[in-house]
Amino acid sequence: MISKEELMKIKVLHQQGMSQRAIAKHLNISRNTVKRYLKGDFDNPRYATRQSGISKLEAFKPYLHSRIAKANPIHLSAVVLLREIKEQGYRGGISLLRQYLYCYRGKVEPQPIVRFETEAGVQLQVDWGQMRGGKSPLHAFVCVLGYSRALFVMITDNMRYDTLEECHRQAFEYFQGIPQQIWYDNMKTVVIERDAYGDGQHKLNQSFYQFSKEMGFLPKLCKPYRPQTKGKVERMVRYVRDNFYRPLATKLTSMGLRLDVATANSEIMIWLNTIANQRIHDTTKEKPADRLTEERDYLQNIPPSLKPAPPQLTVASMPVKTRTFDNAPLHHELSVYEHLSEAV
């Protein structure tokens, strides 16, 4: 790029009758540069428009457009889309993807949630999250340990009490222990009436009360309109919906399939063990799976009734000796009975 002084010299020398070749030689610049500035109406020197380089994301934009359109109105996060295009060979980072998604569809501002920390083995937070409504609903039983942030999820088609109890049992097996406290909101399968016997003395579902005694944990109820007391699991419900359910459901829908309970539970165990509990948590800066290993030392033991039955020993059958008896009736001479009666 030439300076303003050189641009002025080009115009002055041209007005003095000097040729473009002579001007270029005199100023030691390209003849094409002289020609361009004399032909154009430029007051200031400028670069020619450069063609921008090809973005690392360019090859994956058609897939992103199609994926977002097919999932609409469901919002797929940048984390989910990054995982999918990395499987197709994307080598860029999430910042480039987020910048592009912001320009393409706008930014979704997350709502901040206030959390409080707990000691290992003390607290588990539980909640239901509806993944799909209608005649074939899908619900997610979501629970997260307060210390390790280890997550467990089970997909069901109902929220009845027997289903709730089975979900608890599966969670205890997954965590390999039982915490001291479990926090709930106003689940009808847990609490019949809040403060029924005084402040903080609630009337619990009788079956659930017996179950909590058997397992050895204390049920705790969150205060109404106080999401801070159960903020960890509140966020995890959205995380399960956005990071697991919506990507899987929309992918199956695009293939003409519908997600069912069996498929969801099969896929979610893989997701828990390879993604959810292996991510670096924003607060702890550690993997939940690693902290769960530490927290297991503080969890209560699972009652024997919950543990798998030990294998039964196979006892070889002992040979039984058989005897052959004479089926003929016993018969004695009458004289025998006469002698017996005389002896008496």
Task: Describe the protein's architecture and organization.
41% of the residues lie in helices and 11% in strands. It is of the alpha/beta class and 344 residues long. It folds into 3 domains: 4-39; 58-105; 123-304, Ribonuclease H-like superfamily/Ribonuclease H (Nucleotidyltransferase, domain 5). The longest helix has 24 residues, at 231-254.
List the helices and strands and how they pair.
Layout: H1 4-15, H2 20-27, H3 31-39, H4 61-71, H5 78-86, H6 94-105, E1 123-132, E2 138-145, E3 151-156, H7 161-175, E4 181-184, E5 191-193, E6 203-204, H8 206-215, E7 218-221, H9 231-254, H10 261-274, H11 288-295, H12 334-343
Parallel strand pairs: 1-4, 4-7
Antiparallel strand pairs: 1-2, 2-3, 5-6
Helix pairs in contact: 1-2, 2-3
Number of E-type strands: 7
Largest sheet: 5 strands, mixed
Strand order of the largest sheet: 3-2-1-4-7
CATH structural fold name of the largest domain = Nucleotidyltransferase, domain 5
Architecture of the largest domain, CATH level 2?
Answer: 2-Layer Sandwich
Question: What is the CATH class of the largest domain?
Answer: Alpha Beta
What integer is the average pLDDT? 82
Instruction: Give the terminus-to-terminus CA distance.
Output: 148 Å
CATH superfamily of the largest domain: Ribonuclease H-like superfamily/Ribonuclease H
The level of helicity is: 40-55%
Secondary structure category: alpha/beta
Report the radius of gyration as a whole number of Å.
Answer: 39 Å
Q: Return residue spans where pLDDT drops below 50 for at least 5 consecutive residues.
A: 309-318
Number of helices: 12
Sketch the topology as an H/E string, one letter per element: HHHHHHEEEHEEEHEHHHH
Q: How many domain regions?
A: 3
